[in-house]
């Protein structure tokens, strides 16, 4: 069965390969036809950035208001201007079905097409008063000449993001993707089968998950059938809480197995909820079952530091994993997760050039930070206990040099200082600038190897 393509006009540039498979999300794969197929929430989708996919209808901005976004249907003969993304919904559960306009709004929200990335790029570089800083010059020279500028942050579900980054420890993108797919095929609900060569869809919703499903059947489903691959949802915490550590180890999760089972038990025991569509950060992500633990994490009264501490209380969640969840799923665009790549960038372009300054409450565009009712900056959660972030980084760099350490040990205060350094240079969306640098750095490492 074939499904119609629809156009999603996008004045905002987006690079699908780097956005969908660049290390922030692990549910998409490229097809031999040059398209991208994946599962978002409880729906299966195919995306394309080709010039003219066949048999399309258009979803235009034409004055119809949909939850703050404007979209409506138009005839295929209508002219399309600007960049266009193409999408088709392969399957969505009937109880969670959306009309076409809402489906388009959902994908625009998921792909963050409302964020003016070109404007951000100008603010980070050309219009940045600190454009001569070594890190700003590094961003411009290494990312400005390629497609990296079109990398966007997907608005992902907290549940999926937590499970994905629990699998990320000591892993690369390819292996993380494989582990996340094993979770889905082993314990998630089947949505449909997809043919990689032809784009056909079959067996729509024919095999919903059963608690008696065996590991043997899960492995058989994982291999697919020729060019056909099964598409599954991410399992609920209820389902994972019923599993044993040994069972996950048999699937190849190793020491991460106990963290997945323990986190599932903690979150599942908080109780299941179903948040209203208009509530919370992920306002379109209403089809997934939620839990009180997640709702508490999104409580608007919680500060950034409180949210981080709540995540750090989970087994297997360290500083980097917590920051990835805050950045990619909770909407804290000012977060900069620090891994090996970013630590190297910090030693070369932040720490080595740092000299103490008192201007820690002013970002790179010269704008003062918003303050809460107590008069505190919203970034006080990443302060360095009253120390100047530049001094902390300078000391970190100096101690590493004295001990001939290529990479000095990272403490929480160093994570905080690196994050403040990025924010000082790039402002409230410094997490997006970090992702562009991360991907450029990762690609450079792949070429060097």
Describe this structure as you would to a colleague:
This protein has 449 residues and is α+β, with helices and mostly antiparallel strands. It has 3 domains: 4-58 and 81-140, TATA-Binding Protein, CATH 3.30.310.40; 156-206 and 226-276 and 284-328, Orthogonal Bundle (Endonuclease III, domain 1), CATH 1.10.340.30; 332-356 and 386-448, no CATH class. It is built from 17 helices and 12 strands. A 7-stranded mixed beta sheet has the order 2-3-4-7-1-5-6. Strands 9-8-10 form a 3-stranded antiparallel beta sheet. The longest helix is centred in the C-terminal third of the chain and has 19 residues, at 430-448. It is globular.
Summarize the structure.
By secondary structure, the protein is α+β, with helices and mostly antiparallel strands. The protein is built from 17 helices and 12 strands.
Structural class: alpha+beta
Q: Tell me what the CATH architecture of the largest domain is.
A: Orthogonal Bundle
* Structure annotation, total helices: 17
The biggest beta sheet, please? 7 strands, mixed
- How are helices and strands ordered from N to C? EHEEEEEEHHHHHEEHEHHHEEHHHHHHH
Q: Which strand order spans the largest sheet, edge to edge or round the barrel?
A: 2-3-4-7-1-5-6
Fill in the CATH topology of the largest domain.
Endonuclease III, domain 1
Low-confidence segments, ≥5 residues, pLDDT <50?
60-81, 214-222, 276-286, 356-386
So what's the CATH class of the largest domain? Answer: Mainly Alpha
Summarize the amount of helix as a percent range. 25-40%
Mean pLDDT: 79
- Distance N to C terminus: 43 Å
Write down how many β-strands occur, each being a DSSP E stretch of 2 or more residues.
12
């Amino acid at each position: 069965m074939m499904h119609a393509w629809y156009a999603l006009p996008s004045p905002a540039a987006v690079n699908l390969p780097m956005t969908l498979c660049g290390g922030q999300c692990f549910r998409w794969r490229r097809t031999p036809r040059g398209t991208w197929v994946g599962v978002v929430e409880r729906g299966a989708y195919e995306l394309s950035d080709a010039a003219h996919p066949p048999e399309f209808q258009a979803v235009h901005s034409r004055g119809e208001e949909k939850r703050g976004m404007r979209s409506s249907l138009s005839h295929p003969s209508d002219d399309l201007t600007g960049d266009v993304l193409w999408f088709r919904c392969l399957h969505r559960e009937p109880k969670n079905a959306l009309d076409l306009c809402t489906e388009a709004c959902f994908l625009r929200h998921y792909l963050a097409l409302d964020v003016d990335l070109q404007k951000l790029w100008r603010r980070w570089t050309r219009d940045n008063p600190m454009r001569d800083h070594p890190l700003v010059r590094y961003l411009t020279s290494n990312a400005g000449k390629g497609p990296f500028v079109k990398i966007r942050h997907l608005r992902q579900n907290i549940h999926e993001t937590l499970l994905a980054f629990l699998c990320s420890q000591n892993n690369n993108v390819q292996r993380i993707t494989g582990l996340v797919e094993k979770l889905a095929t082993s314990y998630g609900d089947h949505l449909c089968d997809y043919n990689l060569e032809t784009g056909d869809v079959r067996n729509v919703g024919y095999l919903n998950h059963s608690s008696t499903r065996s590991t043997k059947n899960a492995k058989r489903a994982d291999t697919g059938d020729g060019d056909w691959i099964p598409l599954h949802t991410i399992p609920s915490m209820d389902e994972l809480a019923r599993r044993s550590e040994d069972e996950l180890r048999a699937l190849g999760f190793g020491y991460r197995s106990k963290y997945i089972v323990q986190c599932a038990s903690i979150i599942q025991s908080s109780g299941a909820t179903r948040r209203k569509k208009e509530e919370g950060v992920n306002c379109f992500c209403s089809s997934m079952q939620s839990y009180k633990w997640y709702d508490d994490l999104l409580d608007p009264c919680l500060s950034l530091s409180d949210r981080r501490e709540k995540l750090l209380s989970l087994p297997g969640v360290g500083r980097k994993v917590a920051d990835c969840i805050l950045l990619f799923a909770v909407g804290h665009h000012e977060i900069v997760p620090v891994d090996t790549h970013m630590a190297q960038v910090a030693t070369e372009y932040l720490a080595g050039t740092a000299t103490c300054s008192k201007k820690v409450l002013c970002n790179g565009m010269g704008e003062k930070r918003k303050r809460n009712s107590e008069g505190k900056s919203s970034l006080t959660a990443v302060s360095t206990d009253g120390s100047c972030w530049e001094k902390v980084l300078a000391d970190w760099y100096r101690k590493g040099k004295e001990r001939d350490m290529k990479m000095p040990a990272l403490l929480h205060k160093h994570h905080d200082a690196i994050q403040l350094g990025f924010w000082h240079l790039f402002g409230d969306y410094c997490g997006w600038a970090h992702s562009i640098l991360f991907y450029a750095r990762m690609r450079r490492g792949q070429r060097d190897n």
